[in-house]
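agent> fetching stored inputs for the fructose -6-phosphate docking request
agent> found them:
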Amino acid sequence: AEVIIVGSRRAAGALVAEAIERLVAAKADSVLGLATGDTPLPVYRALAERVRAGLDLSSLRGFALDEYVGLPVAHPQSYHSVIANEVVTPLKLDPAAVHVPDGRALGIETAGERYEDAILAAGGVDLQLLGIGTDGHIGFNEPGSSFASLTRVKTLTRQTRADNARFFDSIDDVPVHSITQGLGTILRAKRLVLLAFGAQKAHAVAAAVEGPLTASLPASAIQLHPRATVVVDEEAASMLV
Ligand code: F6R
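agent> prediction call returned; pasting tokens
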């Protein structure tokens, strides 16, 4: 992967927003792969600034990486809510063109296949935004995920639930399962942009970029992608050779 070290989260947001703006200039109805969590927020903020200044993203389509299983859609921490509040509203996207996997218990067995079909019907993801877990996950593909995996239900690791407890009242409120695009799904995107900030991501970033290809560190799968860019701050880059 190409590694770009930036001075701040804000600079990372501006850089990636610029790439997305170029994508939309070339194809207004481009398909953006959306990550949640803290990491992509500087990108969404930079895009929102551009939208306020007149950038039109109304034809942009989107697919989120993942969703918790069993949270009501209207729960403030469901990724349906987060995508609506952090992405669709500020970027003035068409809500009908932005998809999040269906984590409701009813129909969960077929939700993965339906999501894969929707991505294929949209012509695939043009640019996939990724964060990285401290355990090396991308999406919620936890260690041990197959490089060929497609959208399916995965159990969150104890580490991931502890990392995400900050969004909930306590770790016990963090769902145990997620529905996530697979590593195979992610690798089909035409371009990958993985962002990581802070020292707590340094180990996972170094392992993903410079370590062996291994299902034990799912983000190492990005080494298989011909167009993967990693945008990190100095702290997240600190364990790279
Ligand atoms: C979120 C996702 C996860 C996060 C990762 C990092 O949609 O798929 O892989 O990107 O857990 O989370 P943050 O950005 O909160 O550190």
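agent> quick read of the result: The longest strand covers residues 228-233.
agent> awaiting further instructions
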